Amino acid sequence: MLEHGGNLRDAIAHYGRPLQDWVDLSTGINPRFYPVPQITDNAWHRLPEKSDELLRAAQAFYAAPAMLAVAGTQAAIQALPRLRQRSRVVVSAPSYAEHAYQWSQHGHQVTELAYSELNAAVPTADVVVICNPNNPTGAGVLPQMLLLWAEQLQRRGGWLVVDEAFADTLPGTGMTPWTDRPGLIVLRSVGKFFGLAGLRLGFVAAEQGLLAKLENHLGPWTISGPAQQIACAALNDKAWQADTRNYLRQQGDRLRSLLSRQGYRSSGTDLFQWCADADLQLQTEQLWQHMAEQGIWLRLFRHAARGLRFGLPADEAAWQRLERAFELWSTRK
Asked: pLDDT per residue over 22-39, tens digit each?
């Protein structure tokens, strides 16, 4: 399997530092997660039938005409390549690595291109896959451009797949309102903004025919009863959502400012910041190693995108640990 953030067990095994003594900044997950409500007893007892309440809450939150709940967007990322015959697939790069990996695993011809090269590639592609905003760089493409791409691809029976896992801090910028158009598929996740990655719950927005094919492929009972109840509460809690967007904006600004004071340029979203190898004065692995020695776990990218991704510290103690680690790093440079 591919390497991902959140692999704190690897850090524990390698450095021998106990779990409670790590500051895990290796993901872009909101550290102040949604407070889980009390779960009714029947959620554990009954088979988890498809929840109309959950779909109504998701469609309202994401402004989508129709949606399918899936066991994390990873389930959809793995399933979508199986719903097409061999296709020419263009994937934005750098990007969440599972997209290119899963399409190539199922026999498709995959080309990874920089964001600046995507527009020129659309006329000869059958499928274009893009993270918007991008993980890990935070790069994005305007909705108007994405709609043009979707129209071009649809004329040939193609797809535009837009992974919007990190779009919840940018309300009004997503593509979900237009997903009743054939060929436009949008993936959304409750794991990042709501901080509920352990639910394994995401949503696919697309036209009804494609959602039916995907649902048939994935089979019944894919979302647990407790996950359905928790997600309904989170998706309907507008006060928590507004407060959390303000909180994440402040925390994102603080992280950007901290990196800037170290002399590092960064990009990203309110949930994470990205520093490319050049931004880190070509000392990416050295800084990653230093932080690990201080008990701070970052996401190191070694291949298509060389750099470090910094998630948000969970509390003031974690912020102080990160700042002290940077002070020690400054004395070593």
From this structure: 999 999 999 999 999 999
pLDDT tens profile 226-248: 999 999 999 999 999 999 999 99
- pLDDT value at residue 1: 47
Task: Give which of 142, 116, 146 is closest to 129, Cα–Cα.
Answer: 146
**Four-residue CA torsion sign, 14, 308, 248, 175:** negative
Q: What structural domains does the chain harbor?
A: 8-33+239-332 (3.90.1150.10), 42-236 (3.40.640.10)
Quick one: 259 exposed, middle or buried, by C-beta within 10 A (0-12, 13-18, 19+)? Answer: buried
- Distant-in-sequence, close-in-space partners of 41: CB < 8 Å, separation ≥ 6: none
Percent of the chain with pLDDT over 70: 97
Which residues, in sequence order, are CB contacts of 257 under 8 Å at separation 6+?
none
Contacts of 11 (CB under 8 A, 6+ apart): 17, 22, 292, 297
CA distance linking residue 133 with residue 121, whole number of Å: 19
Structure tokens at 200: 């394994």
- Which helix (H) or strand (E) element contains residue 189? strand 184-189
3-state secondary structure of 2: coil
Structure tokens at 13: 């095994």
Which positions of the chain have pLDDT values less than 70?
1-6, 304, 333
Q: Residue 63 CA to chain centroid, in angstroms?
A: 19
**CA distances in angstroms from 89 to 2, 79, 85, listed in the order given:** 19, 15, 11
- Burial letters 70-101, b for 16+ CB under 10 A, else e: bbbbbbbbbbbbeebeebebbbbbbbbbbbbb
pTM for the complete prediction?
A: 0.94
